[in-house]
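Recall the central idea of this unit: under ordinary conditions, the amino acid sequence of a chain determines the structure it adopts. In this exercise we apply that idea directly, starting from the sequence alone.
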Amino acid sequence: MNFALTDEQRMIQETCREFARTELAPQAARLDETKDRSILLGHLKKMADLGLMGMNIPAAYGGAEAGTVAYSLAMTEIGAGCASTAVTMSVTNMVAEVLLEFGREEVKAAYLPKLCSGEYPAGAFGLTETGAGSDPAGMKTTAVQDGEEWVINGSKIFITSAEYAGVVVVWAVTNKEAPKGRGISAFVVEKGTPGYIIGRDEKKMGQRGSSTNQLIFDNCRVPARNLLGSVDDGYRISLMELAGGRIGIGSMAVGIGRAAVDFALEYAKTREQFGRPIAQFQAIQFMLADSHTELSAAQLLVLRAAYLKENKKPFTREASMGKLLATEAANRACYRSLQVLGGYGYTAEYPLERWSRDVRVTTLYEGTSEIQRLVIARSLLKGTG
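Accordingly, the structure predicted from this sequence is:
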């Protein structure tokens, strides 16, 4: 097995690490405190210029064609710099890949270049509803065909980046008589479409710099060409794209966890108690060692899933395994790192407080940890993967 990165992958990793260090990290606390959209939008445009908003999109549409492994490496570095920015990058790349794989040529030509270039600051993924979170097949939003248009009615919640997304991919029931999960379709809705209403921005525990909105569809009409894939095949599309999204979230979680551990390590070298640096105490050393080991193992699992996806091999179970381990390990790493700082870690003066809030949601979106365990267990019981 060859774990070495290619020259291109290493260059992307180093470029993102430097960008995160010089551009994202210095403003992450202010973005968290103020939700200043100019900061986030400035980050997103610079990232688009670096090719980070369409990393698996062909150059013909303005993408970077960098591959899923490079994308995972980039997400880890961006996550270490600013989680609010990283989650926007993750969802935008997901949306771009959905359009690439399932959109008609005119849809791809219309929207992909705008996502990749930053003309659209972000894309949004409109799946979750109040009664359809872990069970998306239970959604109530509907779409009815009317001539050359589809009319969408309903609402979505917890939609990342909707406030500044140029396009949103929306799932809706198109056949109420079909078995559960079989009568759902996916559509592209452009910002500014009549009947497409962006609702409140949720007040969140963490990743406050990223908007998380309610969406309302009130007789929202979209052209028939904006249907993704075929009618009633949207649920399958959502499952496929969620699997890919888990690679991004797992990668980001590793980045947040490593940022926390690196900070705690440096702090422990200089913070003295009982006449010596606390890094010399075994209790502190063990917390740092456990966190670094768990995060390293998690990153290998995530990269394995990325490698399989890049080589067009089945990766759903591996993506769930990587996302599960990475997000749980990152939460433990942030908790231990905060413990290393003691009372100082609990104050906003140090970034551990923010990282601990930012990392918590990684075990929730793109499928909770419990859903990942279900995916893994079902794959094992079926003998697949």
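The longest helix spans residues 234-270.
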